[in-house]
Amino acid sequence: MPHDPKQKESGLSFKTEYFAIFFVIALQVQTSLYAHGDYLGVRLNLADIFLPFMGLYVLQAILIRKRYWPAWDVPYILWWLAALSVVMSLSLMRGIYINGYISNWALINKYIGFFVLVAYFLLGGWIATNSGNVRKLHEQSTLAMSGFFVAIIILSFLFTILHKYTGFLFTLAVNPWSGFLGNRNVLMVFAVLVMMFLIFFYKEEDGKREGGFYIYSIYLSLLPIFFVYNASRTGWILFSILLVVLAITKTGFTLKWRIMLLVFGGCVAFISINILDIQSPQGQDQYKHFSELVSEQSQEGQKMYIGDEKRLFALEDGLDLYAATGYSLLGSGLGTYKPFQIKKRGEYIDVIDCTPLWLFVETGPLGLVTFFAFFCACLWGAGSKKLSLPENRNFRLAAFAFLIAFAFISLLHEVLYTRVLWFILGMALAKNTNAVKAKKV
């Protein structure tokens, strides 16, 4: 049967909310598999395991049950994705030509990984297009994503305390303040995403609906703890700005209540560090570096922080690689940076931890400009009042704000392959059949 847009609580509309809830949770669980030799392994999300099965379900729902293809509010968005696919294909072939072999990292992590991102974007769009109640879809998926994140931070804190006093290394204490993602900077990206929805999605009384008030009250009280223990310098900058935005933005929380929660969290963080003597390795490294930086000793040949040193190496080696491969419009090709750095320095130091630099080096000016154009199209679609309907305006505004933050994070980290970004974007930019008549197969 064709989808009935009037259905709000049953049929496909009911299922789409659960699909979204599952994926925004599963996207917060990641591991690396098949690492061996000079191959760093496949970064696999729990959601990735179910993605092929979800794809088959979507196809049969469209082809057999006459459901809707995802429809978009952004003109030519699929053409931009097609252009990116062409760029990535050309860059893969360019990399094979330069290296003389097929790089596993380039083929699996970068090339196939890109199409995984596209699949998440399309899946998010399909879910939003076929939802019978798009506002409920946005509320439920946002609460699930935020609630799971809050649970991870609570467990991380509790397990860190237990590890301190029992010596037993609990699951979330193995890699402190990286959650289930194995990378504290990626967990920081999730924290920023949750903060954006706190500020821009839950307007007026919305924060008190469906448990949102409680989740975000806990989130604000945990923010100082996360701020201290995650110890991401990029996060410090962003959250300092976001706290100012939070203070002047009208949400479902009074300013007094927000301040009380933050003060409470700050007191807990202070007690845990100065009385309970609980530290995170990342936090200790960052604070030691910061104290050295502002001390008089820093003026006398103080060694550069290792993270900054790696970024300078990446900048130098990336530009050298681009020059060595002839300043091509397609760059040096996917997977060429690592062997070049090994040849130049005798060892592999780290990835190019800057998205624009990585795109410029391995996909060239063509890839960088194409990705930037796609980013601008998404930014315009999320922020344009002409395209936003009242029922999803706040959700799109939150996505718009996250894109701005993402642009800043990308300058200091390589986060283009953060899957939740693409999934949320798909949900935000899609048309919904309740408001617009979509094209049926």
Q: Beta-sheet strand percentage? A: under 5%
Q: What is the averaged pLDDT score? A: 83
Largest sheet: 2 strands, antiparallel
Which strand order does the major sheet show?
Answer: 1-2
Q: Helix segment count?
A: 15
Primary descriptors:
441 residues, mainly alpha, two-stranded antiparallel sheet, 15 helices, 2 strands, globular, disordered N terminus, disordered C terminus
Explain how this protein is built:
- The protein is mainly alpha-helical and 441 residues long.
- The chain has one domain (11-295, 342-429).
- It has 15 helices and two strands.
- It has helices at 11-26, 46-63, 77-99, 104-129, 134-166, 184-200, 212-230, 233-248, 255-274, 281-294, 306-324, 337-345, 355-383, 393-412, 419-429; strands at residues 30-33, 42-45.
- The chain has a two-stranded antiparallel sheet with strand order 1-2.
- Strand 1 and strand 2 (42-45) form a beta hairpin.
- The longest helix has 33 residues, at 134-166.
- The N and C termini lie close together (12 Å).
- 42% of the residues are buried.
Architecture blueprint of SSEs:
Blueprint: H1 11-26, E1 30-33, E2 42-45, H2 46-63, H3 77-99, H4 104-129, H5 134-166, H6 184-200, H7 212-230, H8 233-248, H9 255-274, H10 281-294, H11 306-324, H12 337-345, H13 355-383, H14 393-412, H15 419-429
Antiparallel strand pairs: 1-2
Helix pairs in contact: 1-5, 2-4, 3-4, 3-13, 4-15, 5-6, 5-7, 6-8, 6-14, 7-9, 11-13, 13-14, 14-15
